[in-house]
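call fold(seq) -> tokens
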Amino acid sequence: MFDTYEHAIDWIHARLRLGIKPGLTRMEWMLERLGHPERQIKTIHVGGTNGKGSTVTFLRSILQSAGYRVGTFTSPYFEQFNERISINGQPISDQELIELTNVIKPLADELDKTELGGPTEFEVITAMSMYYFAKMSPVDVVIYEVGLGGRFDSTNVIHPLLSIITSIGLDHTAILGDTYGEIAFEKAGIIKNGVSVITGVKQAEALEVIRKKARESRSPMYQLGEDFSTGSRESLKNGEQFSFSSLFGKVESLQTSMIGSHQIDNAACAVMACQVLKNYYSFIIDESNIRDGLIQAYWPGRLEVLSESPYILIDGAHNEEGINALASEINSRFADKKVNILFAALKDKKLDRMIATLDKVADQLTFTTFDFPRAATAEELAEIGIVQNSFAEDYKGFLKEKLNKLQNNEVLIVTGSLYFLSEAKPVIANLLEK
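ret:
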């Protein structure tokens, strides 16, 4: 058994060798042996291609403002592994993670010897979270972020109070399908019988799939743009402002401290979720909680400004939809500045369109790489570039040189894989302190 944090983390990460194994049988096996902790917690399920993490954060922040003790399960982590299991935004302690690993390891060892095969890293962490929130540190509600897809995701063993599907994009197509409809089918797999579903999905093809699943499940559906909407949208220097309306009422001049017009859609889904919780599940949430929660919500790596002089921004735009959202913000916010972009990505993404979009909005586009098994090399990315093909294998050296030269009329945007950003952010912070 484990007595140090390092040994526990090494064992968890070693499960990565098993890759992705869609299906719920291993989760169900472990949860039965644990006494079904998933049945002892109230949950909210959040799926979608983009916006999951931000929506989880908005919702958690509002509920926390209303006085609730809120657990969250998110992925990937950004600065510390423990973030994946948090209460009121605070990651679990190293000691708690050791205890959880010691609970789950014997089950994983036993599963390894069965025909089901051993649990993956994500399955192990999911089971740990459910045991933690049910047995070790009870909370009022837990918000679960889907890891991949939905239908066969290991989080899909819960029966939530409500489900949220934020968006649909063409990501992980090798696993989820090549069309919006096919991907929507997988995402809609989190819809449970009679459980309300809230969605910010916009594509007609995807929406029809979600509607069909909701009808079959007799689940009330609340669609952004139909059953709830935003208006008076305005980009502020350090966030966004908008009004919100639904069948439950209207709220004017809401503000977020997260940059990006797409964050208004994510915030609207969170507000709608709060109205459903208030009206159908007796949660005590008032307008001031919504206002305070939205403005206080913070999610690292999403159009996050690290410095205004020099102007440095990081954004985890790791798929085509994310890159399009970033490009839109560049065009609206930095039209009068020289835009420098440093980009790193995983090689299993659809990189050609992503890079073509960055080519259009960047005055200088530099490709780089980082220490991660699936990371594309800087040269591989540069070969895809059509207009620009500058690359730097050593991103730390590039950042050091660039930060010393950055002028007042320039902005540096570091973007791509969230795994890359989690490495690069502390490097940038260290350089800014010097």
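The chain has 15 helices and 17 strands.
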